[in-house]
Amino acid sequence: MLAFALAALFAEWRGWPARRALVFGVVAGAFATLPDVDVAYALFAIDGMTVVRAADPDAFWSAANRVHRSITHSAVIAALAAPAFGLVTTRTADARRLWVSRAVGVLALAGLLGVAVAVSGTLGGIVMSAFVLGGVVLAAAVRRSTQLSARALAVAALIGLFTHPWGDLFTGEPPALLYPFSVPVFDGRLGLAADPTLHLLGAFAVELATIWFAVFVFAHLTGRSIGTLSDPSVTLGAAYGAAPLLLIPPTLDVSYHFVFSILAVGLGCAVFSWLRSASRPRFGLPRPTQRPDRSAALSFVTVGLAGITVALAGYTAVYLVL
Predict the structure, then answer these.
(1) Which pLDDT score, from 0 to 100, does residue 226 have?
(2) What value, to the nearest 5°, has the Cα angle with vertex 234 and ends 293 and 231?
(3) A Pfam family name for this chain (predicted)?
């Protein structure tokens, strides 16, 4: 979400049309998901390349955490991989330039793979292979389905890859931002509060604020106002203030019950708002050629986010009082 918002605003600042800026933001957001391909390692091996049983989540995360937030979360890797993804998807009528660009891109990606194997062994090679393959497939899909140039794709990829690791500073082990160099940037997780539950609530608030940022950027570029999409249904989220009396205080180690329940509250607010809107009396039938309100989906998302925000505020207030 952060990658989408920053990339879209950057494109608007560059004077791009709103639609192209949104596409650029979506591409950056897609590349921002690529670093988490490292957890795919856990699907294939723990020890001796044995398959991890899906019914054992502890085993899965134990294997995933061996490589998560390391190789693919590096700013150094991002700075090299992003241009390479653009180069391997170069399109030009000049055959010589085409093959040179693609050859340089392939060599750069092969070099990253070689470095990963040299520094982290076979495990590093597996993770980097998944990262490179995923990036090339994503880049090819973007070039096939959009009008973005190879250079624009590389910039979008750089924004996406570079912004991804920062959210992990609050929720897990700090990412290896300078891999393959053994130079730690952060000694540990950034604490928002000494109380583990308040830390989780703060981290959740940061993630929620990031989503709000993306929604505001989308609304801005599409000429919509968030204020006009508000609905009284969001006040239902205040009922979640009773949750601290009923639920075990969540922490980063045990947070599923909190996350799923508060998301359910937001979904409930959005659905209730939609039902209220659908049940309002209509005077006159719409013309067959009339297009559906494009703001309906944005309104659904906005009301849901507002409901979650109210629920989070209510939960935090009650928790602080207890």
Answers:
(1) 80
(2) 40
(3) YdjM
Residue 207 amino acid letter: E
pLDDT tens sequence across 39-67: 766 555 544 444 444 445 555 445 455 55
Q: Domain ranges in the chain?
A: 2-171, 196-279+292-321
249-288: string of b/e by CB count within 10 Å (b at 16+)? bbeeeebeebeebbeebbebbbebbbeeeeeeeeeeeeee
Closest by CA position to 276, among listed 308, 235, 228, 231:
231
* Each residue's pLDDT tens digit, 230-240: 788 888 999 99
Q: What is the CA radius of gyration of the chain?
A: 23
Q: Which of 228, 203, 226, 196 is CA-nearest to residue 214?
A: 226
- pLDDT (tens digit per residue) in 137-170: 999 999 999 999 999 999 999 999 999 988 888 8
Q: Is 48 helix (H, G, I), strand (E, B) or coil?
A: coil
Find out whether 268 and 300 touch, Cβ atoms under 8 Å. Answer: no
Calpha distance 26→156 (Å, rounded): 9
